[in-house]
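#lab-general

N.A. 3:47 PM
ok so I finally got the sequence cleaned up, no stray characters, all 383 residues accounted for. can someone with queue access submit it? mine expired

B.Y. 3:52 PM
send it over

N.A. 3:53 PM
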Amino acid sequence: MGGQAAHSPGRSRVHLTAWRSDNGSQWTPVAILGTPFFSEVYDRFEIEIEPLGARYLKIVTRPLNRVATPDATFQDIFVTELQTYFTSAVGSPGWQGSTQALASGSTRLQLGAGFAYDLSAILSKSPGTHAYYLINGLSYGRRMAEIVSLDARIARQDQQQQQAHQGLFLYSAALTVNEWPTLGHSLVYSGQVSESGAATINSLSLYNRATPYRGIGLLAGGSVNYTAQPSGQTTRNDIVTVSATIQPHRAVTVTSGYAYSATRPISGGGSSSLNNRLEGTVTFAPVPALFVSGGLSHVIVDRQSYTLANGAATVSPFREGALQFSLNVSQTLEPGGQVSKVFSAVARWYIHRATTLTAAYTVAGQGPGGTVNSIDVNLRIPL
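B.Y. 4:20 PM
back already:
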């Protein structure tokens, strides 16, 4: 299974959970095999799940932490392309075919006095299934003073897969203060209320940025999140993040960061967890044809510590990047304390315009004895 997503060298990991259902209403977890990783061959994230015979399958990813940015544009994650594959040792003879349809659209209407209405819709249909996603939103933006601005939004989101309709009310408000171009602060409140049995979430975040000197950037923020489940369980999640970016030379960039996350039950039982992460990355790009990056992360999860490494390199020996070679090595901490490792070597040749030939060798593994080797060659000729 693959879906398009943003990617940056050395940081190609996503956090996902998979669920299965036979009736579209009762969901049970499904194991994700290995580590979802970014495929240099097809420019997308690839996800492998355990074999199953359920009628419905959904994969959920955590949204961006609102402490990272108050921009409402990034508060929803959209899958722009989805492809699924099923392989079996026993095949069916003859030809098989299916017809699928997908339609999507969005519009935005400026109402005046700072108000705007937006509408987005996605409709899909395949044999035996149909689904839709619809969101209506009303936003308000106003500059209250020269350095102070207010943005707010309320929205109604409806989505349905077969008969399993889900309705959500979404709301958010952000107060932003920018004293100077190099100093700014944002206070963000957001939440969602479900009318179909999903959790109710409320979050308050404070985000700060500063550029005290050219080549130095600082970010600091924190958030408090409350999640109430329909079963009566309520949990609180506290997050603190601090990061710094230093560019001592135009070809060298050093980034470092610290993240703290603590989750504890407020009512209804449940377990607590405490995570700390300290990481640093150095990138070297003396010319556009060469990029090298390497980093270390030290993670403490409930008093158990792990040290993870990652690295990436890209070389384009010919003019205009007609031929590219890249290497990527990464380690990721999985739930349960397993460390997964991925190594990939990719060669891509841009033969003519959008026609490309790509060859990749990948080694992926999780724990002892869980290594998978793959070789992939792809010729893409758009018509």
